[in-house]
Amino acid sequence: MKAFLYGIALQWKLDIRSKTLLITCYIVPLLFFGVMGSIFTSVMPDSKETLIQSMTIFGVTMGALIGVPPSLAEIYRSDVKKIYRANGVPLYLGIVSINISAFLHLWIMSAIICIAAPLAFDAGIPENSGLYLAGLAVFTAASLAIASIIGLAVKDPTKTSMFSILIFLPSIMLSGIMFPVNLLPGSLETAGKFFPASWGYRCMTEQVFHFELFLPLLFLFAAAVIICAILLRRVSK
Prior knowledge:
By secondary structure, the protein is an all-alpha fold. It is built from ten helices and no strands. Its main location: membrane. Keywords: Membrane, Transmembrane, Transmembrane helix.
């Protein structure tokens, strides 16, 4: 247990010094929040009520899908994996520590948005804070699990970012944070339901708990964990 906690603490320190994580989990999401928050509230004053949720969805999606896969590829597609084996460290520790560290960083970024939005743009605070936090937790976990699939599945580390962007863009465009999903063609609205961002946004903007909104996120998370376990076994061979 001490070794496990030490591995997580070490990963946390490494992530703090990581330029990739700094950019994807803090700089770009917060810059997007500053710019788009001003635009949204000026063009669509009603967007103040869901500004925190919208900007959080963008930040978590970017931090997970763009920031996590390269870190996993750095471990499992390089000599770091050999170091793990030589020292008797279980290979799953890498993916677990990276995901826990990223989860904490994404929540810090989300907290900054939640505090700054009412001050900067007079944004509305989620009325049901418990439901908002529950939706954020499940959405973050599902996004990180899918990001882990990319990091483990793509054999060429140089192509990891390309695959991440291919998932990131439709996740954001079809999630409903930029414009209502009912304005999309039926096929695109349906396609958006295959991404965590769409369900995460709906969960975080609801005022009453609806288990059917959380169920797709839980299913995506469970399916992604199973796929990661299979991929991790292949990588270990």
